[in-house]
Amino acid sequence: MEILKEFNFEVDEKNSIEKLKIEKGSEDGKEFLNLLEKAKEIGKPKAIYLEGFIEEKLEEVIINGVKFRSKLLRKNL
Question: Domain range for residue 33?
């Protein structure tokens, strides 16, 4: 298992505001940007990954003994 600690994590503010349907310049928009800045300051993103093997791929996908019921995962594997 590998743990990744040192990587860039950036949030596209404009795209995030649009996807969340927040009106630009509104009080909600200002609050969102304020919270986003705070999150950037204190956030320490990490990721973990390991090599896994597909054991079964029918209605559910079993990888390393763990069952996943995601249609999207099944389709993309």
Answer: 2-45
